[in-house]
């Protein structure tokens, strides 16, 4: 457990050594569930967005509150196939069927270790700010498709949002936004 708290996560770290309900554990779980297929920068950005929301007056003020807010993270939606990656990451670290059932799934294991490491970095502050204050995002690759086969987009008022671009983040993987400042805030008295 001390290695976990000190940010020393490696292939020998057991999932049972990690408190999955701690702030770091919850951040790692959402990073794994939502961004395990992305690169390290994309995963860091996603976790940083969670922390930006915690600090914003537009969202709950705890990691758990942000993550469990209804319809914010698809991996927490009741019928989403990715729910197991958040609720019980340990069940995703072994191959589930076929000739190699029960063996370590190296891709998921490596993604979980990366998620733990990145959660510690973001939570402790060494990777805070990587998302450039983004508060909302969506993944074009995981959106449903319209009748022509084009991905749908969220029903947000995009006039109130400013798109954020981060080097190393694919726009096809994550599209990030922050709220535009209202004119009332910008006016001097």
- Largest sheet report: 3 strands, antiparallel
**Rg to the nearest angstrom?**
18 Å
Please state the overall shape, judged from the principal axes of the Cα atoms. globular
SSE topology string? HHHHHHEEEH
Strand content: 5-15%
Measured distance between first and last alpha carbons: 53 Å
Question: Whole-number average pLDDT?
Answer: 83
Q: Classify the helix fraction into a percent range.
A: 25-40%
The helix count comes to 7
Widest beta sheet: strand line-up: 1-3-2
> How many extended strands?
3
* Structural class category: mainly alpha
User: What are the segments in which pLDDT stays under 50 over at least 5 consecutive residues?
Assistant: 1-7, 185-189
Explain what you see.
By secondary structure, the chain is mainly alpha-helical. Helices cover 35% and strands 6% of the residues. The protein contains 7 helices and 3 strands, in the order H-H-H-H-H-H-E-E-E-H. It has helices at 2-5, 23-35, 40-55, 63-68, 83-87, 106-124, 183-186, and strands at residues 136-138, 161-164, 175-179. A 3-stranded antiparallel β-sheet has the order 1-3-2, with helices on one face. Helix 3 packs across helix 6 (106-124). The longest helix is centred in the middle third of the chain and has 19 residues, at 106-124. The protein is globular, with a radius of gyration of 18 Å.
Give the secondary structure arrangement, pairings included:
Layout: H1 2-5, H2 23-35, H3 40-55, H4 63-68, H5 83-87, H6 106-124, E1 136-138, E2 161-164, E3 175-179, H7 183-186
Antiparallel strand pairs: 1-3, 2-3
């Amino acid at each position: 457990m001390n290695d976990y708290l000190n940010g020393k996560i490696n292939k020998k770290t057991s999932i049972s050594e990690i408190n999955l309900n701690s702030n770091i554990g919850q951040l790692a779980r959402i990073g794994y569930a939502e961004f395990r297929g992305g690169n390290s920068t994309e995963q860091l950005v996603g976790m940083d967005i969670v922390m930006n929301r915690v600090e914003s007056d537009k969202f709950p003020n705890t990691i758990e509150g942000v993550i469990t807010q209804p319809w914010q993270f698809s991996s927490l939606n009741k019928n989403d196939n990715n729910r197991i990656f958040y609720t019980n990451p340990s069940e995703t670290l072994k191959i589930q069927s076929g000739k190699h059932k029960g063996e370590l799934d190296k891709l998921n294991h490596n993604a979980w270790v990366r998620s733990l490491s990145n959660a510690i970095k973001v939570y402790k502050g060494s990777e805070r700010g990587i998302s450039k204050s983004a508060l909302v995002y969506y993944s074009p690759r995981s959106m449903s498709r319209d009748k022509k086969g084009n991905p749908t987009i969220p029903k947000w008022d995009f006039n109130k949002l400013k798109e954020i671009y981060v080097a190393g983040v694919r726009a096809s993987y994550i599209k990030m936004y922050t709220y535009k400042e209202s004119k009332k805030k910008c006016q001097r008295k």
